[in-house]
Amino acid sequence: MAAGLIASGLKPSSNQVAGHSFEEGHVGSLVDDSGWFYKPLQDGARGEYEIEFYQKFWSDERVPDEIKEFFPKFRGSVLVDTANSPTPTRYAVLEDVTKSFDQPCIIDIKMGFQTWYPEAGEAYRKKCEIKDRESTTGTLGIRVSGMQVYDPSTRSKWKADRNWCRKLDNHGVEYAIRRFVSTNPFDDENPNALLASKVYEAAKMELEKLTSWFEKQTFYHFFSSSVLIIYEDHGAASKVSVKLVDFAHVTYDHDTIDENYLAALKSLTRVLSMSP
Fold first, then answer.
1. Low-confidence ranges of the chain (pLDDT < 50)
2. What is the pTM of this model?
């Protein structure tokens, strides 16, 4: 049993690249050995909204199966006792999207030119507006929230911390995109981007599938959601996966397409195309 945990069979997620981690003394994400990821739900309405999204989405026959593959499977919610909280914490039980990877490289990209949802309170909206304006959200429609890259020469992972990501401007995002597909990620000055072609060509094919769906669907509008690009290099080829995560601010059944998210998808595809 992992140190600090009361719940048997759960351990801190070693592949979390954004948000609070359990090791930092927070109520963080956990995993088990069966391929399930335990995400702590936010207090109040936001936690309920995320559960509601998964319940709606996975029972929604309007969503094609090939689109549902981009979303983590959902197994409900549970209460978990941990040493980092005086009371049990409610967790959403989701598919661990890194389970099939041995040494996953992961980048978390916050999507949308606007991250606040229309029904948000004034204080939350203003907080998001400031962050959107002061980051690449307002200019590129995407923001790097975190990433880790495996270095085969040292058999270790380079991980971008929260402060590193916050400082990224437009050029910094392009630099991060190059560094993410480098076999020398610890080299601050000259990341080699050797895996760019293999990884990003595969990722762009997946993003094109998503883009085609977002050009038509009006069922869901996603705010402050993220795209995860996950890969592992295997020499002649790379294993690449694209997943969508974080759904506490989804709104439903509009008469228009989700232009905010659609524009972000197109922007992300353009940025990936710029990598050598």
1. 1-6
2. 0.93
